[in-house]
Amino acid sequence: MNIRKSHLTKIYYFLFTYLVLWILLFEFVLPVNQVLPKPSIVIESFGSLWTDYDLLINFLSTISVIYISLTLAFFSVKILSPYLIEKNNFISLFINSLEWFSEFLPGIIIGLLLIFWFPESEFVEFIFAFTTAFTSIMIKFQNESENVDKEYILSAQSLGLGENKLTKLIIWKNVQPELSEHIFNLHFYLWSMLIIFEFIKGGLGLGVIFRQALDYKDLSAIFSVFLITGLTVYLGTLVLKYIRNKFIFWS
């Protein structure tokens, strides 16, 4: 624990150094450039994000899609978990086919098809995010369920537990720590994919602000949304860690 705290402290020192360098270099030494905007202009640009780029509605659109889809995907897999254990049923075979596609086909290509099929729909963003999260968690659950200690399963079967209870009480509980770790990676991946999706499609979302700011060549707006996105992802990760430590993690 002390080693981890020391590591985090060093990282915070580096972050603070980056902040100081940004202020010194781009506020005073290189005030006019095409690399990074002046800190004072970034602060001023936050106001224009609300009026010119509709920050509130676009921000709420992105975070609601990400965290609702992530939550629904997790609990959907939990509900379906008894059916995901079997290797030869329709659901398991369907998952295996998706896993094969996911190894060779980037998820954003599926997103491009959805944009082509439903160019005017705002709901299609949720379909894309939910499908991405649901498929990823399903595949992870099925893979990790193969690694559950057989002694736990045999002991539960000897006590007369049915398949549903066996999955919920033994397999799901054993897989939960690995799933929670997987969700941290999925969380960042989902943010990346959705912003790209919004950037291409248009409509609502932080990706739309990035697109508009690029069209206007508004460097300060790009950097401001970059900071907002990074801070939101960081806070979201902290919330996920709290949930894991409070309700999920066990050994």
Overall average pLDDT: 82
Helices and strands, in N-to-C order?
HHHHHHHHHH
The description of the largest β-sheet is: none
The whole-angstrom Rg is 22 Å
Can you count the beta strands?
A: 0
Quick one: overall form?
A: globular
Instruction: Report how far the terminal alpha carbons are from each other.
Output: 17 Å
The amount of helix comes to over 70%
Proportion of residues in extended strands: under 5%
What is the oligomeric state here? single chain
Helical element count?
10
Outline the low-pLDDT stretches. none
- In terms of structural class, how would the helical and strand content be classed? mainly alpha
Could you explain how this protein is built, in words?
This protein is mainly α. The chain is built from 10 helices and no strands. Helix 2 packs across helix 10, helix 4 crosses helix 6 and helix 8 runs antiparallel to helix 10.
Helices and strands, with pairings:
Elements: H1 2-29, H2 39-52, H3 55-84, H4 90-104, H5 107-117, H6 124-145, H7 150-158, H8 163-201, H9 206-216, H10 219-248
Quick overview:
By secondary structure, the protein is an all-alpha fold.
List keywords for this structure.
251 residues; mainly alpha; 10 helices
